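Internal tracking record. Fields below are filled automatically when a chain is submitted to the structure queue. Please do not edit lines marked as system-generated. If the sequence contains nonstandard residues, flag them in the REMARKS field before resubmitting.
Queue: standard
Priority: normal
Entity type: single polypeptide chain
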Amino acid sequence: MDNTYKTYDTDKLVEQAQRAGTPIVDVRPKEMYAEGHIPGAVNIPLADMQTADVKPGSVLYCMTGYHAGLAEEVLHKRGIRATDIGGMDFYHGPVEK
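SYSTEM-GENERATED OUTPUT FOLLOWS
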């Protein structure tokens, strides 16, 4: 994994994804997803990334961006392009439960 520090404008990236109809994937455990997630996001936990049906071009997030980065790496190794957009710590928009 690339250990360089990333900065995110998660709010802007989420807004762009929602406008474009890009799939938004929450890679946190189901319990964390149930506590609140970005509207329209589907939950595919990191532990399931090796076999999950993730649409190419999806954007990924977790709490801090770290696990989303790991998920991005797993998917890239599977030949699926996806993008880590950070985490809930960087998101200030509405939340669904």
